[in-house]
Amino acid sequence: MTVINTDHASTFNTGAAASMKLDAFPPEIMWSTLDPLDEDAASDVVIETTDRSLVRLAIAASDAGARFEREGLEFDPAAWLLAPRTLFDGRAAIEACMGREGFRRNLLIHGLHLGLDADPLALDALLDDDEPETEMADVRDGESEADREREVRLPSEPDPQLRTCWLDLERDGIRSFTFWALVSDHPEDIVERVVGRFGREAAGSASFRVGFDHSTPLGVAMISDALADTLALAACDPRSPLAEGLDMIIEQRFAA
After folding, report:
1. Can you tell me whether residue 202 is helix, strand or coil?
2. Which one has a higher pLDDT value, 246 or 187?
3. Per the count of CB atoms within 10 A, which of 62, 105, 131, 248 is most buried?
4. Is 43 helix (H, G, I), strand (E, B) or coil?
């Protein structure tokens, strides 16, 4: 595959680019300031890439857009792709997702609905857990083939997940904003708690989701960075000691 940049009158073969570090982009690129409707310019930065990297980028952009649409997020997915993210070690998704590491992180955060940013170390640890383990011996010591065939395999337990909820209520002249986070095996658990505390009508207008998004205005205003990091870790590994039994409420009240 050959890419030709007419402004720079240069040609290169991307097969030779495979050996380059795909996430080593020039620091002068400011993705969010580039207008795609403008004419190409001689000052535009030439980026060497590979066909595999372009496929990764296309899939990453598609996954992000599909998730934003599916969850009704009030953010522009293109803006998310162009902005620096902790998830990608301070780089933008449009850069990071061309490499295998960034691409896998992008798949995980959107596939598991883990908010819009996360601790990269926590995600990498979760990805490492998915690597195949060493296979056990075909025949265990002292156990025959017939014994193994008679094993009773219990059904796996439901997977716990971090589930969060936001409420915006006005009652008796008081405006309140409430955040609820719960690690639970069943999605109805957090709904039942909200109904029990605030009533069915309030629960009907609440915003529920799997995972935690710290980038919302309320999230920034009410959740500290330290707590946001804790919730991100709980979302990545709901079975960890940190996440076990997590059930918390944060509420702010104002005169309406």
Report:
1. helix
2. 246
3. 105
4. coil
* Pair 92, 84: CB distance under 8 Å: yes
Q: Encoding tokens for residue 25? A: 């982009």
pLDDT, tens digit (0-9, with 9 covering 90-100), for 218-234: 888 888 888 888 898 88
pLDDT digits (tens, 9 = 90+) for 77-103: 888 888 888 888 888 898 899 999 999
Q: Which ranges in the chain belong to alpha helices (H)?
A: 51-71, 77-82, 93-96, 100-111, 120-129, 145-149, 188-198, 200-205, 217-222, 225-236
- Residue 198's SS3 state is helix
Give the Å distances, CA to CA, from 111 to 70, 71, 98, 252.
Answer: 12, 12, 18, 32
CA–CA gap between residue 124 and residue 63 (Å, rounded): 19
- Cβ atoms of 252 and 170 within 8 Å: the answer is no
Q: List, as one string, the DSSP characters of 53-114.
A: HHHHHHHHHHHHHHHHHHHT-SS-HHHHHHSEEGGGTTEEHHHHTTSHHHHHHHHHHHHTT-
Retrieve residue 214's tokens.
């710290």
| Residue extents of the structural domains in the chain | 2-33+45-122, 161-255
